[in-house]
Amino acid sequence: MNVAPVFSDIDDSPLESAEAMEARLFEIGARRYHNLHPFHRMLHSGKLNKGQVQAWALNRFYYQSSIPIKDAHVLSRFRDRNIRLEWRKRIEDHDGIAGDEGGIERWFILTDGLGLDRAYVESTKGILPATRFAVDAYVNFVAQRSPLEAIASSLTELFAPTLHEERIVGMLEHYDFITPDVMAYFKRRMTQAPEDAQFALKYVKENARNPEERQAVCDALIFKTNVLWVQLDALYHAYVSGHVPPGAFRPEVNG
């Protein structure tokens, strides 16, 4: 029986060095990062209405608020105090510390500015089922897979600053309901994300010591890009194509 070959968009040859793995990681980002998704293209070019932007911010809150939980799982995987100290900063960046409100609070500034009720946002009652499933899968991945894979899954941060810059410029230009103040989250991540990404990249380059471990690093990044992509698929299906599932946010009711 003839079986049709399976073609991948990513080279799958053995990774014989840390440098080859790094190049593969950037290839994954170039081909699979969610900046390429049609929903993001619409968001950044002013093609969405306010209700659709509200739906995006509401659903994305579940991801943002789950990041410290994910990072707490990473912390629990390491006895090395230096790694814990470095990774703990990520939790503080999102949950906040004295004198710094943190990323989750800055996300509330965005949803407040979009006219969403904060209690409703925080309840996550209106998010899409696919959002919840995808984000929970990410948290479980980090808790259950190897520490190397857990750290590798964060490497989407390598590509985030370009996306944040595009988002800030595009949304301020195209939406009269967006002001510089409500974009505070993305402005802060322009400096935080590169620092976080460089630590994670250095860690995986030093600790993935054979082709199998290097492939596991790449697979973890692919998994994470899928987590981000499927959330946008769900938003497009619900709020662009018009198939909002029961119980999910409806701008005409909850906006």
Automatic annotation (TrEMBL):
It comes from the Bacteria. It is an enzyme of class 1 (oxidoreductase). The keyword Phosphoprotein does not apply. Keywords: Oxidoreductase, PQQ biosynthesis. The keyword Zinc does not apply. One of its GO terms (biological process) is pyrroloquinoline quinone biosynthetic process. Ring cyclization and eight-electron oxidation of 3a-(2-amino-2-carboxyethyl)-4,5-dioxo-4,5,6,7,8,9-hexahydroquinoline-7,9-dicarboxylic-acid to PQQ. It catalyses: 6-(2-amino-2-carboxyethyl)-7,8-dioxo-1,2,3,4,7,8-hexahydroquinoline-2,4-dicarboxylate + 3 O2 = pyrroloquinoline quinone + 2 H2O2 + 2 H2O + H(+). Gene3D superfamilies: Heme oxygenase-like. This is Pyrroloquinoline-quinone synthase. Pfam families: TENA_THI-4 (PF03070). SUPFAM superfamilies: Heme oxygenase-like. Its EC number is 1.3.3.11. Belongs to the PqqC family.
